[in-house]
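Encode chain A's predicted structure.
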Amino acid sequence: MVTATVRRRLLRHIVSIGILIIVVGIISASQFLHDYADALIVWSESVIAVRPYLGMAVFVGIAMLSAMVAFFSSAIFVPVAIYAWGNAVTFVLLWLGWLLGGVASFCIGRFLGRRVAAALIGEEKIAGWQSQLDERSRFVHVLLFQAVVPSEIPGYVLGILRYRFSLYLLALAVTELPYVIGVVYLGEHFLKGQSMVILLLGIGVVLLAIVLMRQLGKSAGKG
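Encoded structure for chain A:
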């Protein structure tokens, strides 16, 4: 059973994604900011062109690290990757990096234990979610867990719980896929300066979340 708390967290997560998309759209719409970003992208691509395979390895490593800790997002490097290698290669590299980050965090939780995991993401995050899952949790609950919480948390928690690795990997791959598609899609439109498309998408995501929140409120009122 999906609790109201989980639903609310999911909807807030959707709202935050929509707001981030709107921010990207605003940056794209600003001639000054977009020109500055373009200059950085062109410069970065010239550096990558000298050592393309090393550049790919670094990009995968950044994506992997961003899936394990909360300091930054690898999404900001996606326009550079698209400019250097195209959409398809960027898609594969980003998905691979996020999957490797999830696998690494799971292994840290499982084999190095709670103390190491807590040092990386904080004990309160682990304790808050560990109480809602166990090693026998249904796959659909793990899918929701992956979708609701920040990406750096599930691997550590499920590793500590000794959840079945094959099911965790499947849930990770499924839930990260739409994010990879979305980030690459936004990166492509950012490069083309199509700010209106990005803004409309962000507004649409926020409005969808608001509608779903109201429906959740009505359902709770009837209950």
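The chain is about 80% helix and 0% strand.
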